[in-house]
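Quick question, first post here. What does this chain look like in 3D?
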Amino acid sequence: DWLYDQTDVAFDLYTEGEKQYLIRQYNKLETPFYIDYHDGWDQLLENASFLPMLGILIIGYMVAGIFSNEFKWKADTVYFSTLLGRNKATSAKIQAGLLLVTVLYWTAMLIYSIVTLGYLGFEGASCIVQLRAWKSIYNITMWQAWMLTLLCGYIGHLFLTTLTMFISAKTRSSVIAVTTPFVILFIPSFLQGMTDWLDTVVAMMPVNLLEFYQHLGTFDLVTVFGKVYRVLDVCIPLYMILTLALIPVIYRTFQKKQII
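> Answer (accepted):
Ran it through. Tokens below.
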């Protein structure tokens, strides 16, 4: 009864398996909570979604023309007629895109971490996330939440970057490719709240990886083959697999393009 009152969850919206899962997650929490000054980690996590959201829009703009510009600049005839144009050169383009997102993402997040924690302090890393996101069903500390935030942000960046490159190679249009991140990031705000099944779809979209901390206090659950998972636990491996699957698809798509 205490659990139901404190979480303020409409339990009627969940199956019996999901209810039991939520209760088990709360029972895993170690009490009493360790409390200490943690403003540095709190600010680090609270503002963590701004840089990834802005970053993917910038990176999307930078990689949108990585394949389509060959056709825009009428350089495709030269490009595909060279000895290595359809194989090693195509691979080099993909590698350049992945290297670009990796360097920019980790550099930006490292600078942000050092500046924020350097100014507000490193204390409180071992505090439980429930001190701020009290509804959270994640039994993790502040520093662990930050590590997951970095990982999720990076996976989200990799997926959206490879998807943008695929659209660039498939459509030969930089305009269509550059709008891809915008559409994916902002369309959930228009779909959320319409129906229950649509809310589940929205919760599975890659934007939630970029906003990991904001979703720590939610009860987004999904049942797969009778087993209950947190949506974010499904999204992490899902988008890793999709990213790896897109890389050879990009290669084959651009490699087989006909000269026009």
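The longest helix spans residues 88-120.
The CA atoms of residues 18 and 251 lie 41 Å apart.
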